[in-house]
């Protein structure tokens, strides 16, 4: 019997990117939705120029936005990046396309994205939003939630609590405390921190760098990345070990470091801007959170960073959280909004993929920190793109499967593991052929030097070595 969705009362706790989008998905199903956000309404806050934060939106995130009719609205406010632009220490810039033709990653403004999602959620008559409401307690048996609002407690009892309260989720924290749940949890902070800087428009109010690119300064231990904004600035994120941030005490230290590491960025950032910004804010941490299960009974489920926070070295955190909304909605379809069945099914289906993406992002962090400077970054991507051109259905680069397909994340890894095996075989056979080739070349050169043929040379050397042994023995 088709379930009457409108009787279902759902509380989405956390009005960030994933919560606001999921409120749209739940409302579209006909549920009565209340969206609670602990902060004030970002749409009422003043826009501070030069403080915009942007994100890379790729296929998974776009599909999720399309699912609630918001893809075009977001895309029209984004800037397509068709390639990476690798900045070398000597100022050389090399493009590496993301794919053939117009394949691109969209640079979108985080705040704009959140505002559009909140506006869209509020357009549904069955959605109500509450700001300055912080979840402090949940009862996973009754569905009761306690919020702190203006210093007093506000309560709700709902059919489903959806935790979209981010990497430091209080709902996940309470799930951990339920002994009956046997909740598995692991988190890892990496030794790097990140700091967001800003490359302003040029003096004649133009973009200061090439526009439709994801700019990267890969320097092994350090890295910088810049994505374009609609206001012609670039949000520039520097990734560096915390102890390195802490070792830069003075403006001289800072300028020396940038001169040694990112020289071409100094005129772009502006020396005074750089000095002011760098010492005005502290570097922020990056954490990976993996956990299981994502639900408790039929009353609570967590999505987005609350369920799987990842380091940003694939630009997939939000895309993954947005894809959670598609998967969760598909599970509700499959089980006809029966939460007792849909929630466990969601955990079993999504957990392997979210964990795989957390591991991939961490793997890429380790890779890039250890061995990726401009040349190696270029080499790897060129090799990937060449094989993909030669054998398009046979060789799908890992970043393509992650950012340009909806291949399940755990299958992206399986696909890559197989490619690594192929690469190893190719690598060894190239090494073997090179060794044989160099040896042959050596023989030919030596034979020519002794004015003979390689075979006669081998015969001569065998005779000489037999004579030598006979002399020793006599
Ligand atoms: C440097 C950096 C770069 C990144 N770049 C990219 C990128 O290019 N592409 C990409 O896809 N991802 C990127 N990410 C990841 C992305 O930012 C996150 O994955 C995404 O914001 C997660 O969304 P969320 O809604 O799950 O959590 P959040 O965005 O953290 O939202 C959680 C919301 O819940 C609210 N909240 C918290 N606690 C409570 C409570 N107790 N009660 C009520 N509300 C609460 C918070 O105020 C917040 O509004 C990046 C992350 C970092 C750090
Ligand atoms: C706002 O802050 C941030 C911070 C990090 C990122 C983004 C935005 C967007 N990011 C994307 N990463 C990929 C990717 O697949 N890989 C392997 C890459 C990984 C790194 Cl670390 C990199 F520098 C380039 C690529 C690349 O291929 O261009 C995309 Cl595709 S988009 C990383």
TrEMBL record:
Q: Name one Pfam family in it.
A: FAD_binding_3
What residue intervals traverse the membrane? 422-444
Task: List GO BP terms, alphabetically.
Answer: 'de novo' NAD+ biosynthetic process from L-tryptophan; anthranilate metabolic process; kynurenine metabolic process; L-tryptophan catabolic process; quinolinate biosynthetic process
Which GO terms label this protein's molecular function in UniProt?
Answer: FAD binding; kynurenine 3-monooxygenase activity
**What cofactor requirement does the entry state?**
FAD
In terms of InterPro entries, this protein maps to: FAD-bd (IPR002938), FAD/NAD-bd_sf (IPR036188), Kynurenine_monooxygenase (IPR027545)
What EC class does the entry list?
Answer: oxidoreductase
Compartments annotated for it: namely: Mitochondrion
E.C. number? 1.14.13.9
**Keyword entries, A-Z:** FAD, Flavoprotein, Membrane, Mitochondrion, Monooxygenase, NADP, Oxidoreductase, Pyridine nucleotide biosynthesis, Transmembrane, Transmembrane helix
What coarse category fits the chief subcellular location reported for this protein?
A: mitochondrion
Reactions catalysed, semicolon-separated, are: L-kynurenine + NADPH + O2 + H(+) = 3-hydroxy-L-kynurenine + NADP(+) + H2O
UniProt entry tagged with the keyword Transferase: no
What is the protein's known function?
Answer: Catalyzes the hydroxylation of L-kynurenine (L-Kyn) to form 3-hydroxy-L-kynurenine (L-3OHKyn). Required for synthesis of quinolinic acid.
What HAMAP family does the entry give?
A: Kynurenine_monooxygenase
Show the PANTHER family listed in the entry.
Answer: KYNURENINE 3-MONOOXYGENASE (PTHR46028:SF2)
- Record family assignment: Belongs to the aromatic-ring hydroxylase family. KMO subfamily.
Q: What is this protein called?
A: Kynurenine 3-monooxygenase
């Amino acid at each position: 019997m088709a379930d009457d969705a409108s009787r279902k009362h759902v509380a989405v706790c956390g009005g960030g990117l994933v919560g606001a989008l999921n409120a749209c998905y739940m409302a579209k199903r006909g549920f009565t939705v209340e969206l609670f956000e602990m902060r004030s309404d970002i749409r009422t806050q003043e826009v501070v120029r030069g403080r915009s934060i942007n994100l890379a939106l790729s296929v998974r995130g776009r599909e999720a936005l399309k699912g609630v009719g918001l893809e075009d609205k977001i895309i029209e406010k984004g800037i397509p990046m068709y390639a990476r632009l690798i900045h070398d220490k000597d100022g050389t810039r090399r493009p590496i396309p993301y794919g053939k033709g117009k394949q691109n990653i969209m640079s979108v403004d985080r705040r704009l994205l959140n505002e559009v999602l909140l506006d869209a959620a509020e357009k549904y008559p069955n959605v109500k939003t509450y700001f300055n409401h912080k979840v402090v307690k949940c009862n996973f048996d009754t569905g009761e939630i306690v919020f702190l609002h203006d210093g007093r407690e506000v309560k709700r009892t709902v059919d489903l609590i959806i935790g979209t309260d981010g990497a430091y989720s209080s709902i996940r924290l309470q799930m951990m405390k339920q002994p009956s749940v046997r909740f598995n949890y692991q988190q890892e902070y990496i030794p790097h921190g990140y700091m967001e800087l800003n490359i302003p428009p040029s003096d004649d109010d133009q973009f200061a760098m090439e526009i439709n690119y994801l700019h990267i300064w890969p320097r092994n231990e350090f890295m910088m990345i810049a994505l374009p904004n609609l206001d012609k600035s670039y949000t520039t994120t520097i990734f560096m070990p915390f102890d390195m941030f802490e070792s830069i005490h003075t403006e001289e230290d800072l300028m020396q470091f940038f001169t040694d590491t990112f020289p071409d960025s100094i005129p772009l950032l502006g020396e005074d801007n750089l000095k002011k910004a760098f010492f005005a804010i502290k570097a922020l941490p990056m954490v990976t959170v993996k956990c299981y299960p994502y639900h408790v009974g039929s009353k609570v489920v967590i999505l987005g960073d609350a369920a799987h926070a990842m380091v940003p070295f694939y630009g997939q955190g939000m895309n993954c959280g947005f894809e959670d909304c598609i998967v969760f909605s598909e599970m509700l379809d499959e089980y006809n909004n029966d939460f007792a069945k849909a929630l466990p099914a969601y955990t079993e289906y999504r957990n392997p993929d979210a964990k795989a993406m957390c591991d991939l992002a961490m793997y890429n962090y380790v890779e890039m920190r250890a061995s990726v400077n401009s040349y190696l970054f270029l080499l790897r991507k060129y090799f990937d793109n060449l094989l993909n051109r030669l054998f398009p259905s046979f060789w799908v680069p890992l970043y393509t499967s992650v950012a340009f397909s909806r291949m399940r994340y755990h299958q992206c890894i399986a696909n890559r593991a197989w490619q690594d095996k192929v690469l190893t075989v190719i690598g060894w056979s190239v090494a073997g052929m090179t060794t044989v080739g160099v040896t042959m070349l050596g023989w030919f050169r030596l034979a020519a030097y002794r004015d003979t043929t390689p075979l006669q040379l081998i015969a001569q050397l065998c005779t000489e070595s037999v004579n030598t042994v006979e002399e020793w023995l006599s």
